[in-house]
Amino acid sequence: MKAALCKSWGEPASLVLEDVPNVPLTEGEVRIAVHAAGINPADILAIAGKFQLPPTLPFSPGFEAAGEVIESNSSDVKVGSRVLAVLPYFKDGNPHFGAFAQELVALATNVLAIPDNIDFSEAAALPVIYGTAHIALGYRAQLQPGETLLVTGGTGGTGSAAIQVGKKMGATVIATTSGAQKLKVLQDMGAHAIDYKTENVAEKVLEITDGKGANVIFETVGGDLFAATTQCIAFEGRILPIGAASGKIPEVSILVPLVKNCSIVGTDFAAYTLRDIERVRNSLREILSWYNEGFIKPVPPRTMPLEKAAEALAAVANAQAGGKLVLNMK
Questions:
Q1: Boundaries of each Enoyl reductase (ER) domain copy (predicted)?
Q2: Which of 46, 67, 102, 125 minimizes the number of CB atoms within 10 Å of its CB?
Q3: Are residues 170 and 122 in the same domain?
């Protein structure tokens, strides 16, 4: 089978496509014929050797995939099942990835059945962005019905997922973006829309909430926008630093949680796949249920063939992906 391999730490261009042999399954593992694999910014960190637990070289990157089970060493997963897989998991003491390949080996605990009405490309684009939003909002921030949620970068993949998840959890949602077209996208999703380039974000949030501020802030942009959100967090609010799409990682004074009586709560989806896979499974089950109900409506991903894995990762690294990117193997 063919796989995109990282053989030395570096940039996306260092990935090579090679034929690799199949390895025998160990107890509890399954083999999946991969149809599609999602690409995430964390993949860039993994191939650069900057992932929190760097894998052993060489390895095939990829945190999420969807396909069909072709071999199973687990009584819980049947051959022929349509599934998604979330990675990494620990194997021989090392984090094991492997989604950027025609076939993938994963623990049965890291595999979840998908409904027939979702195609493989869409399924492969769900786990990281929707799983992050669900765990961050529902578990880490304990978002409650009637609370106000502020989402920065609302038209991005993770931001739009957070808007949908927040609304399903009963929150009033405010979101930021820039430009009239993107503002309308947010409004169509049922969010109060703020143009962060032409409006004062903190003032608008306080205006919308009658001076109370946002109970939960799902912050994906970083930089100056993160600083602005600290000015409109509610008493006993929760700030969720999810990413830094601006490229500017914010530095936070200890005075912010002290004076604002707020919490700053991190959420790393990959850490949950390694340390609390049952929470991931529960989150994804609920996400798939909401998908079946028609409430979750992912933006259709862009697709590229496995042969262009390096090009696809470079597009993500350079913020030129134009939405969620998925590698197609078939």
A1: 10-327
A2: 102
A3: no
Give CA–CA dist 224/32, Å, rounded: 43
pLDDT digits (tens, 9 = 90+) for 226-267: 888 999 999 999 999 998 776 778 788 888 889 889 999 999
Within a domain: 291: no
Please name the amino acid found at residue 248. Answer: K
- pLDDT at site 312: 93
Containing structural domain, residue 34: 2-126+298-328
Instruction: Write down the pLDDT at residue 192.
Output: 97
**Secondary structure in 3-state letters for 61-126:** CCCEEEEEEEEECCCCCCCCCEEEEECCEEECCEEECCCCECEEEEEHHHEEECCCCCCHHHHHCC
**pLDDT tens-digit profile of 44-84?**
989 999 888 888 999 999 999 999 999 999 999 999 999 99
Please give the tally of structural domains in the chain.
2
Residue 274 one-letter amino acid: L
The first and second tokens of residue 209, run together, are 């909430």
User: Looking up tokens 């083999």, which residue turns up?
Assistant: 31
